[in-house]
Amino acid sequence: MRDNGKRYRQVRAKVEFELTNWEKENTLFALTQTLRQIFTRFCQCSEHLLDNREDEAGAEAAAYDYLRLVGLMGCAWMWVRMVARCPTNDPHYPLRRGLGVFFMQQFAPDADALKSRILSGSVALDNVPAALLADR
To answer: With CB atoms 3.0 to 4.6 Å apart as the test, which of 22, 27, 29, 115 could cross-link to 41 if both were Cys?
Structure first.
């Protein structure tokens, strides 16, 4: 947020470019469809945090979950890249594709939960009495 979203926009442009090209390939459909869902959640949360950058408490509350979402999106992107760059006649292709699909099926649902927590802001923290958070 200190760079006003510059790095986010750079990552977004790169992933969007590659994803758009991969979506044209039938062999990558299951992977790109899921990456698109995770990428959309990542963009929605990033835009929300940038639009509300004055809400420091909300950013603090979202930090852990946002980093997890960034990592999830990065791993999903990495799996699609590995499968996309592997020739379909390579003996390792079925294994790479299978592991990529497994990753997507196992971890993609987390993106929705992370998005919900990120967008909820600091409401849960705000309801904790300050006296309980003070040093004793």
So the answer is: 115
Distance CA 8, CA 67 (A): 12
List the structure tokens of 63.
């930090």
Q: Which of 57, 32, 63 is nearest to 45 (CA)?
A: 63
- Average pLDDT, stretch 13-36? 93
In degrees to the nearest 10, what's the CA dihedral of 113, 118, 123, 127?
70
CB contact set of 61 (below 8 Å; sequence gap of 6+): 120, 121, 122, 124, 125
d(CA 136, CA 127): 19
Rounded Cα gap, residues 23 and 2, in angstroms: 33
CB burial readout 11-49, b (16+ within 10 A) else e: bbeebeebbeebeeeeebebbbebbbbbbebbbebbebb
Give the list of residues 6+ apart from residue 91 with CB closer than 8 angstroms, or none: none
* Token pair recorded at residue 114: 């992370």
Instruction: Give the tens place of pLDDT for each residue, 89-110.
Output: 999 999 999 999 999 999 999 9
